[in-house]
Design goal:
single chain; alpha+beta; Nucleotide Exchange Factor Grpe, Chain A, domain 2; three-stranded mixed beta sheet; elongated; disordered N terminus
């Protein structure tokens, strides 16, 4: 049994003690809750510190350049299909295009040069053929006359009489010489021979020997013709100069 209070003061004390106990109990609970909260915060802080230390240790063990995120690496700009070429690569691409164009132009130039060389070689061969044909065309009359002369010589050799003398042989040879002269004239070549006493012309004459003379006025003039010359009419140039002897003054006459 609870003892009754002996006096009013005891009753008051008892009444006042009840609320105080409740207040003190509530304060103790609050203090305990705060202590538990502070303990939980401390544990969480310690866990975070331990996690950070573990992450730092793990990062120190990963090799340099390794993917620590565990996912695919982000692609570089311009790697996605359809994106524009970076500004630094545009001049290089344009330069490559220009180089290809220059190489193609060079190939075309060399091909055209080879074609030109082929055309030039073909024209040169045709020109050689034309020259040979022209030469044959120019010489054809002479060749024809030479063929005819040969046939005439063979014919005359087979029909010579038994009493054929020197005079007849000379006349026969002169006739053949005249035939050849006509052939030369038909092709623009004539024979010429200077007269005795004509001035010596080194362009038209060829000195083969000297003829002594006591007349100084005759020195340097033609003394005799040893062989006729042949002159190209169109070019007015000697094909073969005439062989002549020239008058020369003797030493005794020169002293006089």
């Amino acid at each position: 049994m609870t003892p009754e209070p002996n006096s009013v003061d005891d009753h008051e004390n008892t009444v006042g003690q009840g609320p105080n106990d409740e207040v003190n109990g509530m304060a103790a609970e609050i203090d305990a809750g705060q202590a538990s909260v502070e303990a939980g915060d401390a544990d969480e802080s310690n866990a975070q510190v331990r996690g950070a230390g573990s992450a730092a240790a793990a990062e120190s063990e990963v090799p340099a350049g390794a993917d620590v995120t565990g996912g695919p690496e982000p692609e570089a700009p311009g790697a996605v299909a359809g994106e524009a070429t970076p500004a630094g690569e545009a001049p290089l691409a344009e330069m490559a295009v220009r180089m290809r164009e220059i190489a193609d132009a060079s190939d075309r130039y060399h091909a055209r040069a080879e074609q030109r060389e082929g055309v030039i070689d073909h024209l040169r061969s045709e020109l050689d053929l034309l020259r040979r044909g022209e030469r044959r065309g120019v010489l054809r009359p002479v060749l024809a006359e030479l063929c005819r002369l040969r046939n005439d010589l063979l014919k005359q050799a087979g029909t010579l009489p038994a009493d054929f003398g020197a005079d007849k042989a000379a006349d026969l040879l002169r006739s053949y010489a005249e035939t050849i002269e006509l052939t030369l004239e038909s092709n623009g070549v004539v024979t010429y021979a200077p007269d005795s006493g004509d001035p010596f012309n080194p362009r038209m004459h060829r000195r083969i020997s000297g003829e002594p003379t006591g007349d100084q006025a005759r020195a340097g003039h033609v003394a005799a013709v040893k062989r006729d010359g042949y002159l190209d009419i169109e070019a007015n140039s000697p094909i073969t100069p005439a062989d002549v002897t020239v008058f020369t003054v003797t030493k005794g006459e020169e002293e006089k």
